[in-house]
């Protein structure tokens, strides 16, 4: 596995790979890799001849008072994980490399970034879209891989790629869960043993959403109320949102007909946990 800290090196390695006619996959990450990331890397290895994993804790997607400083950065362990999972190149730039100049250009995806996480994290998706556009321009992958756990992020990136005619495919892979249902997240590390146990109720609320939908309930308010009931039982938890939205437009749905996303965000101790179910 190769390692690059500069844009020039990534470009020259990928250029040679592309000249050889190989398909290039990119897995963008902020490191602190877990089984969810491993599943993305493995999927990329399956689909592509050459897999780049980027590891960069992107400052522009964190708001004031969020966990940018404390975000885990176990780079040695991450490199080992990438190598084992079959990555060919890790791109681990510094903030200076990615944002050295006075950046005056930002990417704002409208509408889709306003609901759900957009309400409490203004500017977050602008930072995500901009860093992903930069990574796409640097690596020039044929395919980029994202997790369903960050459903709104995946929808925003897909839309940016479509609207700006970026020549790549976006693949969204299923959420990887702990045996009790908790979605894997680098932020689960922030939870105490007790909070970790309580956090499993987040998935219980999503399972309830699925169960009610499958039983034929179409009134979103009724399902949300049942989900809230479960989430209220999380000791020390604070519900940020529980919503049922259209899976493409992210607009709130009253009467469920087509594809929907049941989405929740809960603050629990130092962690803000999000999860969703696509139905
Ligand atoms: O999902 C993440 O880890 C980040 O938001 C991403 C896509 C790597 C952009 O910094």
Strand content: 15-25%
H/E series, N to C? EHEHEHEHHHEHEHHEEE
Main beta-sheet strand count, sense and barrel state: 6 strands, parallel
Radius of gyration from CA coordinates = 19 Å
The beta-strand count equals 9
Low-confidence stretches: none
CATH architectural designation of the largest domain: 3-Layer(aba) Sandwich
Helix proportion: 25-40%
pLDDT averaged residue by residue? 98
What is the CATH C-level name of the largest domain?
Alpha Beta
Q: Which distinct ligands sit in these coordinates?
A: pantoate
What is the approximate shape? globular
Structural class: alpha/beta
What is the CATH fold-level name of the largest domain?
Rossmann fold
CATH superfamily of the largest domain: HUPs
Determine the number of helices (DSSP H or I, runs of at least 4 residues): 9
Distance between the termini: 38 Å
In order across it, which strands form the biggest sheet? 1-4-3-2-5-6
Number of domains: 2
Explain how this protein is built.
By secondary structure, this protein is α/β, with parallel strands linked by helices. The chain folds into two domains: 2-173, HUPs (Rossmann fold), CATH 3.40.50; 186-278, Pantoate-beta-alanine ligase, C-terminal domain (Pantoate--beta-alanine Ligase, Chain: A,domain 2, 2-Layer Sandwich). 39% of the residues lie in helices and 20% in strands. The protein has helices at residues 7-19, 35-47, 75-85, 95-99, 117-120, 124-139, 151-163, 193-214, 220-231, and strands at 2-4, 24-29, 50-55, 89-91, 143-147, 169-173, 237-246, 260-268, 271-278. Strand 2, helix 2 (35-47) and strand 3 (50-55) form a beta-alpha-beta unit. The structure holds pantoate. Residues 28-30, 58, 61, 128, 131-132, 150, 153 line the site of pantoate (PAF).
């Amino acid at each position: 596995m190769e390692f690059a800290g500069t844009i020039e090196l990534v470009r020259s390695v990928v250029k040679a790979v592309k000249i050889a006619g190989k398909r290039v996959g990119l897995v963008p990450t902020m490191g602190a890799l877990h089984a969810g990331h491993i599943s993305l890397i493995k999927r990329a290895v399956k689909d592509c001849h050459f897999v780049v994993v980027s590891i960069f804790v992107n400052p522009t997607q964190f708001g004031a008072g969020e966990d940018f400083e404390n975000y885990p950065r176990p780079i040695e362990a991450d490199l080992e994980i990438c190598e084992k999972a079959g990555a060919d190149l890790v791109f681990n730039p510094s903030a200076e490399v990615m944002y050295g100049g006075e950046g005056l250009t930002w990417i704002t995806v409208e509408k889709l970034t306003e609901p759900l996480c957009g309400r409490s994290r203004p500017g977050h998706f602008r930072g995500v879209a901009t860093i992903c556009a930069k990574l796409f321009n640097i690596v020039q992958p044929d395919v980029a891989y994202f997790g369903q756990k960050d459903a709104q992020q995946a929808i925003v990136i897909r839309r940016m790629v479509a609207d700006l005619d970026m020549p790549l495919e976006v693949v969204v892979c299923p959420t990887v869960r702990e045996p009790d249902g908790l979605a894997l997240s680098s932020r689960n590390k922030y939870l105490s043993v007790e909070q970790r146990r309580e956090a499993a109720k987040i998935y219980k609320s999503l399972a309830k959403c699925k169960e009610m939908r499958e039983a034929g309930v179409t009134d979103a308010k009724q399902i949300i109320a049942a989900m809230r009931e479960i989430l209220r039982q999380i000791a020390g938890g604070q519900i940020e949102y529980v919503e049922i939205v259209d899976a493409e437009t992210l607009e709130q749905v009253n009467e469920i007909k087509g594809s929907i996303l049941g989405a929740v965000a809960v603050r629990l101790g130092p962690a803000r946990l999000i999860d969703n179910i696509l139905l």
